[in-house]
Amino acid sequence: MSQRKCPSCGAWNDQLNSKCSSCGELLDRKKARLIRLKKEGKLPLKIEPSPLFDIKPHYAWWQKLILYIVRPIYWTFFGIVSAILYLIAWLAA
Length: 93
Ligand SMILES: [Zn+2]
Description:
By secondary structure, the protein is mainly alpha-helical. The chain has two domains: about 5-40, no CATH class; about 50-90. The chain has helices spanning about 30-40, 60-90; strands at about 5, 10-15. A hairpin with a 6-residue loop joins strand 1 (about 5) and strand 2 (about 10-15). Zinc ion binds next to loops.
């Protein structure tokens, strides 16, 4: 059985525990950070746009043009791929 070290007090806890048995701190750092951010009202938005297709204001006009053309193609392609994957999963069942 693997063990996890408490980020707060350093005590070793069972991997299955979500909280430290010694101090009660959440063992999942990411979760603990998210909860802390939530408490402070600074929780970042969960859905982040793909940086690759994010049109930034400092982009040159041709970069914006390319992104405007590529983005719908990308989403269409993504839709087709997921449809094919769905079909494969459906056929395999
Ligand atoms: Zn602890």
